[in-house]
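User:
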Amino acid sequence: MEEVDCTAMPTNRVPLPLPAVLERVHLAGESVGPAEALRRACVWRQLVEEYQPMAKSLEWQLAGLHWAREGALPFIDSNVPYIVTNNGGVSADAAALLFASCLEPGAGCGRIAVLELGAGTGLFARYFLDEFRLLCERESRDFYERLAYYVTDGSPATIEQWREREIFQDHTGHVFPRVCDANAPAVSDAGPLRAAICNYVLDVLPSAILRKAEQGWEQLWVRTWITDDASLLKQYTPLSFEEIRALARSTQAEDRARLLPLLPLLEFEKDFLPIGPDAPAGLETLEGEPAGAPFAYNYGALGCLDAVFELLEPDGFALVNDYGPVRREDVAERSVAQRFGPSTAMGLNFPLLEEQMGRRGVEVLKAEGDDGHLLHARLLVRSGVPGVRREFEARFAAAAREQADAPIERARQEVESGHAREALESFRAAIARNPRDWQLIGEAAVFATTQLRDRAAGLELARAAVELNPWYSSWLWNVLGDCLLSMERPAEAHESYLQAQRIHPQDVTTNLNLAHSWLLRGDPGRSLEAVARGLANDSEAMFRHTLLEKQQQAMASLSVRWNMERATAARR
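Assistant: Predicted structure:
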């Protein structure tokens, strides 16, 4: 084959010599390397707030404002986890602790006051009261008659939502809802407390991430940015960038609250800087911490517990259920703030918490095998209370928790594997050990209806689950509606779907079910409205295909109606 001389081929363009090309792309005559070029690169964004200590940063402040405004509603869409302390299990364990406390020598025969901080949904308190009353009836004791349970939250909206839902109606005279700031807990009419309960509340109190450097203490500071995309910003707010910055600088809560819709757009830059004049209290007690390694200092949690022990009887106890590192070697790696939906939290530094409370004469107990769990329970006491200690170990040890959880996990695995007979036995054992676990009973209802084809059993299970939690779970009402629909009771199913919508109007499953239900009722217009809500909130596009099918069915139904109306008009 003849070789072709490529250099002799004609061309329409004369190439530049390579040095000239480089000269043309030179940056202002200055040569920079790749690392420096990346350092100079910037993301298109606008600065909203300069560096602030973490607990004073815009993100942390907006999280607090969101809770104050929305109350317990953030739990409904499950962005903020709550089931683990609100399924009845931890409530039963805590009720057993209080019962043991009432049996201690010298417990007295007067009023028994209990304080729960940051009660959120109120489900823990409701199930606690149910269990404690049952214990007292079973053992023929009058403790429940003497009980005054102060269920509190920092958000007035939360207290109003409890009232609207009548969550504590069955315990009138024994439960007292109050607004109470966990940063400075106090309930004027409670008197000395027998017990205080803190479930997932200490982690949202002010914290700092500190490290000891050669030049002195440093803490993590946060700088807040927002996207520079004005067209995207308009989907969230009509505010300009200057107006956003002005609101961020404002000291008025109502001004900052106007920035709440922007939370999904905020970005955060973090850096360790000198601790500054706003240093958290108690730094002098931290000199024993290793140099260089960052660690969480939950000073808000410590202040809360100090105030709690001022309110407790000498033989009283505090029960804490929360998350965070439990081994010193894990503290540096796990000292990070986490976002759960609109909420920002800092896991508890349990080793430091235990050391600090020990300095105050408070013993912090953990049950055997606790380190392996995600939720960590701690019993805080100042005195002997041997009965309470024994009950805590018996209830909160890993073996006890695994005994309660094992059949639940087996049931789920067997359902997934298609082993219906084995799954049925595991569900029976699981519900016997966890009779108030509404999520578990709801799963059993789905299993009975879809795999066992026992629609009557599924309906009874769904009804029992909804009775335990009719207030917060749109999923349960959808399960009940599906069970009713499978038994050809569409009118009752429709009412269940409507109740699910009242709880969580944006829920995609609920709107899909309503799109179908409205079609069955001959109302394609409302079916289309449900489809639109479903599509607008289907952020993962999991239901898009099915929703669009319902849209087509609704449009076809409307077309039939419109064609009939036109034909009738023509005949007239």
